[in-house]
Amino acid sequence: MNTTPRSERLHIAIFGKRNAGKSSLINAITNQPIAIVSPTPGTTTDPVYKSMEILPLGPVVLVDTAGIDDVGELGKLRVEKTLEVLNRTDIAILVVSEIDDLNFEKQLIKLFREKKVPSIGVLNKIDLDKDYKEKLSYLQSTLGIKFLPVSCATLKGIEELKNEIARSVPDVGEDLRIVGDLINPGDFVVLVVPIDKAAPKGRLILPQQQTIRDILDSDAIAIVTKEYELKETLENLGKKPAIVVTDSQAFLKVDADTPPDIPMTSFSILFARYKGDLFEFVEGVKKIKNLKPSDTVLIAEACTHHRQSDDIGTVKIPRWIRQIAGFDINFEWVSGYGYKKDLSKYALIVHCGGCMITRREMLYRIELAKSYGVPITNYGIMIAYVHGVLPRALKPFGIEFKY
């Protein structure tokens, strides 16, 4: 992987009415013709994502959205897509060029506040208006957020906007790590990576890559092996590893071949904590025993991929849940950004590790499930639960679990 994954980048989304200059602003920030610009209203239809490196921000994703005032049946769908972007937005930029009617802007700011998304206002096209300072004052007093004057045509105010974005980067409140807080400099960390028909040709999957990087950032040593070589690897190390991390589908063999005094967990459980809420997922897996024959379980994946004959999401997890329940269960599936808005029909949600979405979006999905009273768990926790190794897999995090 040569670039920072989109899921690890700061997401900066541009909102506003049609023809406010949202696409022009993206082009001005990047100093490149990234987005199509046209005087025709509604040029931007679906959200457009562009990964960039922008100083002083570093790796970011700029999101161009359709106008919040789009009309008609198709326009309504475009607006829905625009509002969905907020669930993965770290910083929102509201672009305004006309101040005659600010009702749409007021609605957006209300949503920014409800979702606790930091926001910045931009008064665009100041090169066409000598009295823009009066507009600026009016916008700030009426809408209640800071506005910066900008001209996308002349690039005036763009550097000031970039600096304001940098100052607005949300503080997550803690240094989130995948495994780094569980190890010390110089520690050995053994990663068990099965190479089977589900493994992508010629590369490792994203959670494995990111875990290796986190280990190196912690000044520790990553040792990568396959499940059938694990026992020999441990015997030949000459030093006890701080932890063994396995692909969830190799849990049983890795559990058997890893001595009891060596901590063990999975990539998916590490990501349950890194991207979401580990405690919520653990509580969710306990609800499997409460399922009834008429219940429907939602299986959610954050990415789309070619499914194998024994796919984890569509074949294995449904089979395991039916075995635990002792009767047939209804299942539905969703993948990518197309997450369900109404979760009232589901008795349980089983989500993937979430490596392809931002932490903000995963937390949104968890909170949405909680608002409907629907338990939610994670692939890795589910698999460890099925195989009877969840107590051991949770021990590195200080969580006790009893069946």
TrEMBL record:
Hydrogen maturase F dimerization domain: residues covered: 178-276
GO (cellular component) term, any one: cytoplasm
One GO process term, biological-process aspect: tRNA methylation
Domain G: 11-125
GO molecular function terms listed in the Swiss-Prot or TrEMBL record: GTP binding
Protein name: [FeFe] hydrogenase H-cluster maturation GTPase HydF
Hydrogen maturase F tetramerization domain segment(s): 280-396
Gene source species: Caldanaerobacter subterraneus
Keywords associated with the record: GTP-binding, Nucleotide-binding
Pfam families: HydF_dimer, HydF_tetramer, MMR_HSR1
